[in-house]
Design goal:
Pfam families: V-set (PF07686). Keywords: Disulfide bond, Glycoprotein, Immunoglobulin domain, Membrane, Signal, Transmembrane, Transmembrane helix. InterPro entries: Ig-like_CS_Receptor (IPR051755), Ig-like_dom (IPR007110), Ig-like_dom_sf (IPR036179), Ig-like_fold (IPR013783), Ig_sub (IPR003599), Ig_V-set (IPR013106). This is SHPS1 phosphatase. The chain has about 240 residues and is an alpha+beta fold. It has a domain at about 1-115: Immunoglobulin-like (Sandwich), CATH 2.60.40. The chain contains three helices and 15 strands. It has helices at about 120-150, 180-185, 195-200, and strands at about 10, 15-20, 25, 30, 40-45, 50-55, 60-65, 75, 85-95, 100-105, 110-115, 160, 170, 205, 230. The strands form five sheets. Strands 2, 5, 6, 9, 10 and 11 form a six-stranded mixed sheet that branches. The protein has a three-stranded antiparallel sheet with strand order 3-8-7, with no helix packed on it. It starts with 7 loop residues before the first strand and ends with a strand.
Length: about 240
């Protein structure tokens, strides 16, 4: 009993908050001498406590920070979940003559809770900039759409009259069909002065005698004749 009077168990953490999915570290150290017996980590205290870690057990998510140490019993709990919330105790046990164990020392306990991830100011700024860009793109698209609709209301080319030489102005038919159709429709409005001029001209033909060629049923003494035709258009 005297050799265990200088034994100390130190559990420094009072409260710890950890994010879900992260690793929780619980610190516990001992000093001095004591009766033989294991050191365990328990969740809760009393009859409903649960063993979180001991050297002789198998705990996949829990590992010791310093393996095989007789003074440092700090542990790491990976992938912390909401159901892991509770108060954790570092407990030193001593062996009994009957073969059982009893509590020799225990720490003050560490209350563990979970907290949500804090919103990073940079993420807020990025969200604001993204919203601004979306609104700007919407306004630009709306402006282009309205401009396109306004441009399609009127005719893209002006209508009017075109003077062709000395003839009276002829209305232009813009964008009313193919170029050939436009020219045909425009030519129908031209006066028929050229045709009248051609009718007043005298057409004649001076036919030269063709070389004689023997033909059946024609006398040899017949020679080619020269003739002219005149046509005067009535005025």
């Amino acid at each position: 009993a005297q050799m265990s009077q200088d034994f100390e168990l130190y559990q420094p953490q009072d409260k710890v908050s950890v994010m879900v999915g992260k690793t929780l570290t619980l610190h516990c150290t001992v000093s001095g001498t004591s009766e033989p017996g294991p050191v365990k980590w328990l969740k809760g205290w009393g009859s409903d406590n649960k063993t979180v870690y001991e050297d002789t057990g198998s705990y996949p998510r829990v590992t010791r920070a310093v393996n095989a140490s007789n003074t440092d019993f700090t542990i790491h709990i990976r992938n912390f979940q909401p159901e892991d919330v509770g108060t954790y105790y570092c407990v030193k046990f001593q062996m009994l003559l009957s073969g059982g164990i009893e509590v020799f020392r225990r720490g003050s306990g560490t209350e563990v809770s979970v907290h949500e991830a804090a919103v990073v100011p940079g993420m807020v700024a990025a969200a604001v900039v993204l919203c601004f860009l979306l609104l700007l793109g919407l306004f630009v698209a709306l402006y282009l759409y309205r401009r396109k609709r306004q441009g399609g209301v009127g005719s893209p080319c002006p209508s009017g009259l075109a003077a062709m030489g000395s003839f009276p102005p002829t209305p232009l038919q813009c964008c009313a069909g193919t170029p050939s159709e436009v020219l045909d429709s425009g030519s129908s409005h031209l006066p028929s002065q050229q045709s009248s001029k051609e009718e007043n001209d005298i057409h004649y033909a001076d036919l030269q005698p063709l070389p004689t060629a023997p033909r059946r049923g024609r006398s040899l003494g017949t020679t080619g004749t020269e003739y002219a035709s005149l046509r005067v258009a009535a005025k």
